[in-house]
């Protein structure tokens, strides 16, 4: 086992960092977050075509790069560093692994569209008001002639307002089944939801006899959902590591130039200790996230546990880095004009996404049998 970064991954990381700095500066992020979907369609198109973002983990036979989640992890870290308002988490984190665990026909029909960026996909499974750990089907699937229809409501749906394809968990005649629904089809209604993190879009989706095609085998929808959520934890943890690094870099840069009592505030022990402690937490989260990404590619039996630990560890590191960044900046850090609050909101919302740290610790205990 090797978690060392390869030359190819260094090139991917550095290219992604330069690309996002030019294509999605924080001024652009602020403009996009004022739109209903909080999604930069042009950015995602360019990320898909120039970086291969959507297709990194898609097999070559379906038009992807045929790489893995270690490579996706490096790209996600840079996207988190830039707060990129893209569909990376919903598409590469949820939809691609769901399809990979699904039926061959669904993979052949949808993965090429995802890989070339012509389709934005995500997974919907939660009923409005249900806790994140709920796997109860929020919709009903019915046979309709030679096809299927789905009726039900889902909320919140990650990247729901940006999606062109929804993979939905619905109760069918043989049990919970994952099906694909085109958002432009009849019977689909999508409404953006207000969110603490205005850089990541959430939506409510209502389906009324919307035409659908099966993704999983009948009754195997929960297996597909579990695979998707484990991979999404890896991508989200990677994003959070990148965001935490951005906060630490911002803190250190400010501490070097802000003076108080005739000295840079970075010379004071209280500030130095904050930065050092954030670095320790961040490096632990980065190491765990690297291991979880390796598991996604090489040890899938270890992935559920590793991904859960990575998400919980990265969530705590990011929230501490973002909170300490506000404190180090003082009054200016809590103004709308400063970017620190954007990272703080992303850190808090990401910590809660798919379940808070307490929920993940309980899941880890269950997975290791204690």
Layout of SSEs?
Blueprint: H1 7-23, H2 26-32, H3 41-50, H4 69-82, H5 88-100, H6 104-115, E1 121-124, E2 139-144, E3 147-158, E4 165-172, E5 175-182, E6 188-193, E7 202-214, H7 221-257, E8 259-260, E9 263-264, H8 269-298, H9 303-329, H10 340-352, H11 357-368
Parallel strand pairs: 1-4
Antiparallel strand pairs: 2-3, 3-7, 4-5, 5-7, 6-7, 8-9
| Total domain modules | 3
Shape, please? Answer: globular
Radius of gyration: 20 Å
Beta-sheet strand percentage? Answer: 15-25%
H/E element order: HHHHHHEEEEEEEHEEHHHH
The secondary-structure class comes to alpha+beta
- CATH architecture grouping of the largest domain: Up-down Bundle
Tell me, rounded to a whole number, the average pLDDT: 95
Biggest sheet record? 7 strands, mixed
Alpha carbon gap, first and last residue: 27 Å
How many strand elements?
9
What is the count of helical runs?
11
Helicity, in percent? Answer: 40-55%
| CATH domain class of the largest domain | Mainly Alpha
Instruction: Write the CATH fold name of the largest domain.
Output: Butyryl-CoA Dehydrogenase, subunit A, domain 3
Uncertain segments are: none
């Amino acid at each position: 086992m090797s978690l060392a970064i390869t030359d190819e991954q260094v090139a991917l990381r550095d290219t992604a960092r330069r690309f996002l700095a030019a294509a999605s500066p924080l001024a652009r992020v602020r403009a996009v977050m004022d739109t209903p979907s909080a999604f930069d369609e042009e950015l995602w198109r360019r990320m898909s075509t120039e970086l291969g973002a959507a297709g990194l983990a898609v097999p070559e036979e379906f038009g992807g790069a045929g790489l893995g989640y270690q490579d996706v992890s490096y790209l996600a870290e840079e996207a988190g560093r830039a707060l990129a308002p893209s569909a990376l988490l919903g598409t590469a984190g949820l939809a691609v692994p769901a399809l990979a665990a699904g039926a061959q026909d669904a993979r052949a029909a949808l993965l090429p569209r995802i890989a070339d960026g012509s389709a934005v996909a995500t997974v919907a499974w939660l009923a409005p008001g249900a806790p994140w750990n709920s796997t109860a089907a929020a919709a009903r699937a019915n046979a309709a002639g030679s096809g299927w229809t789905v009726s039900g409501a889902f909320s919140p749906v990650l990247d729901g307002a940006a999606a062109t394809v929804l993979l939905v968990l619905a109760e069918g005649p043989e049990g919970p089944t994952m099906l694909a629904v085109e958002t432009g089809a009849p019977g689909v209604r999508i409404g953006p939801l207000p969110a603490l993190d205005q850089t990541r879009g959430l939506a409510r989706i209502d389906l009324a006899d919307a035409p659908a095609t099966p993704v999983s085998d009948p009754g195997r929808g929960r297996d597909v959902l579990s695979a998707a959520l484990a991979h999404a934890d890896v991508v989200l943890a990677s994003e959070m590591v990148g965001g935490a690094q951005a906060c630490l870099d911002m803190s250190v840069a400010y501490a070097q130039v802000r003076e108080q009592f005739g000295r840079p505030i970075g010379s004071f022990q209280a500030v130095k200790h904050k930065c050092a402690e954030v670095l320790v937490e961040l490096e632990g989260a980065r190491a765990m996230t690297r291991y979880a990404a390796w598991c996604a590619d090489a040890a899938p039996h270890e992935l559920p546990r590793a991904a859960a630990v990575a998400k919980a560890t990265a969530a705590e590191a990011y929230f501490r880095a973002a909170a300490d960044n506000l404190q180090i900046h003082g009054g200016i850090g809590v103004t709308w004009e400063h970017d620190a609050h954007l990272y703080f909101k992303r850190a808090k919302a990401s910590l809660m996404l798919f379940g808070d740290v307490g929920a993940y610790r309980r899941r880890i205990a269950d997975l290791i049998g204690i």
